[in-house]
Amino acid sequence: MRKVRLPKHRHYPLILRRDVIRLERRDTKIVPYWLKLPVFGVRGGIWLGLKPHCDVPLDCSLREAKLIRRKNSWTVHLTIQREVPGPVIDERPILAIDLGERYLATVCGSNGINPQFLGKEVRGIRRHYGWLRKRLGERKLLSIIEKVGPTEQRKVNDICHKVSRQIVNQAKETGSVIVLGNLKGIRKKAKGRRMNRIVSGMPYYKLTQFIKYKAAWEGIPVVVISEAYTSKTCHRCGCLGSRPCQGLFLGHSCGLRYSADLNGARNILKRAGEYISSAGAALAQPVTQVRT
Fold it and tell me: Torsions phi, psi of 106, nearest 5?
C-alpha cells in the first residue's frame, strides 16, 4: 500500500486516491466498517472505525475519499460506484419537479400525490451571505470573506441533499417516475440584473444532479423534458397568463388565480404525461456514484 505523508500545515479536505485506501465490513460491536489509511512512518497504515449514515452495498467499488478536518473532529467522505439495472417505465405515476426562485423545488404528482414546496431556506441563505460579503468588502476584510464562501456552500449543499433525498424517497414510496425540466441555457434567458443575479445564485444544476444520481441508485426512472413556457401558461385552459408578482399566476381566459410555482409544476406534469406516452424517456445513467 502506498504511503502518504501529511504536512503539518496541510489544507483540508485532503483527497486520497482509491489505490491508497481500503474499506472493509466487519461484524464488530464498536463500528460496522473499518477504513485503512496510509500514514507515514507506520508500516501498513492504520485502521479507523467508521459509522456511515447509510449502509454501503457489498456490490459497490470504492473510489476516492476526502479527509476533512474541522477544529478537533475528523470526517471522511467516501465515493462509491455501483452498476444498477436500467429502470423500466410502465404505467407508473409521475412526480413533476419545478425549480424556482421562491422555492427551490415545487413537487406535484399524479394519483393524488400532494404538492410540496421544498428548499425555501436557500433564498434566505443566499441573500444573507450576499449582504455579509458586501459589508465585509466595504471594510476590506478579505480574509473573512474567504471563510464565508465555504460556509455558505456547505449550508446550500446540505439543503440540496435533503431536498433531493425527500423527492427520491417519495418517488420510491409511490413508485413514480421523476420528471425534471431541462434548464440548459437558463442563465442566458434571464432578463435584467436582478433576475440574472437570482438565477446565477440558485443551485439548480446541483440539485438536478443530486436527484439524478440518488434516483439512479434506487433504480427510479428520471425523465428530462423541455420546460419552455411552463411558467407563463395556465395549466387549466392552456392559454398564456401573467405573473403580477413572483408567487402569483393569473389565467386571463379562465380567471385562474394560482400559485405560480405550483402552476409551473402542473404544466410539467401535464407535458410529461404526453411525452412519456408518445416518445418514451431519456433516463439517468445506469452507472452512478454516491457519497457516504
Answer: -110, 125
Question: What pLDDT digit, counting tens, does each position of 4-35 carry?
Answer: 555 555 566 788 888 888 888 887 888 888 88
Domain boundaries, the chain: 14-83, 94-285
| 3-class secondary-structure state, position 253 | coil
What span, in angstroms and rounded, lies between the C-alpha atoms of 200 and 105? 16
Burial of 181 (0-12, 13-18, 19+ CB in 10 A): buried
- pTM exceeding 0.85: no
Question: In which residue are the cell numbers 483540508 written?
Answer: 12
Digit-coded pLDDT (tens) for 239-290: 888 888 878 888 888 888 888 888 888 888 888 877 766 544 444 434 445 5
Strands 177-182 and 248-251: unpaired
At a CB cut-off of 8 Å and minimum separation 6, what does 78 contact? 23, 35, 52, 56, 62, 63, 65, 291, 292
pLDDT in tens, 138-181: 888 888 888 777 888 889 999 999 999 999 999 999 888 999 88
CATH 3.30.420 given to domain 94-285: yes
d(CA 61, CA 206): 24
* DSSP string of 148-173, one letter each residue: HHHHHHHHHHHHHHHHHHHHHHHHHH
Helix axis angle, 142-174 to 121-138, nearest 10°: 170
Helix axes of 142-174 and 204-218: crossing angle, nearest 10 degrees? 40
